[in-house]
Amino acid sequence: MELRSFTGRDDLASALARFVADALEHRIRRDGKAALAVSGGRTPTRFFEALAGERLPWSDVVVTLVDERWVDEDSPRSNAALVRRHLLHGPAGAAEFVPLWRPVPTPEDGLAAVSAAIADLPHPFAAVVLGMGDDGHTASFFPGGDRLAEALDPAGTAPVLPMRAPGAGEPRITLTLPLLLAADRVAIHVEGDGKMAVLDAARAGDDVAEMPVRAVLRAAHPPAVFWCG
Ligand SMILES: O=C(O)[C@H](O)[C@@H](O)[C@H](O)[C@H](O)COP(=O)(O)O
ipTM, 2 decimals? Predict the structure, then answer.
């Protein structure tokens, strides 16, 4: 992995926004459209606001999520609601947004529709921004996840899978590893000394089932890790 360290959260947010905006501009110049997949959780808010301030041809950008909790957008746990609130406003509101949640009871019920919507996006993605949990999960690749091996299979062909895991809270839906790693640029965004300790532990071992983020750290085209203390 390539570590990019910052002294403050705002500096990190600006640099990550530029890293993503460069990738989007490049893909738009080449293909006319570009897709971006972002993570939810608590970390990305500042980055979303910085990215929303980038001058981009936003109507040529499609935004989706790396993963989603199976909750409607009124829930405080909805990643889609977070993206709408902090990224898709002002000029960035012209971007198309493809959410991963559908108003059906389970991720299995929504899987066909979500898979079709993801297949329709411009591929490969220009950029993917991942987060990381204290248990070493990334996207919804959780330790103990019921479909973890399938989601991490480098030869897997499903773009999207449901995921249930003890540490996941509600059922989830996630883009799969090969789709994410095919992106032009992959970043992992982590903040705080605790997350750096988790990253160090991940780098020190091999067992992907124990810390699934290892599958991303060891990718042939390794991610850029954006970190600040
Ligand atoms: O929906 C989610 O939960 C995420 O996409 C997930 O993979 C997240 O990136 C990590 O759990 C880190 O979350 P925090 O930023 O809240 O620590």
Answer: 0.96
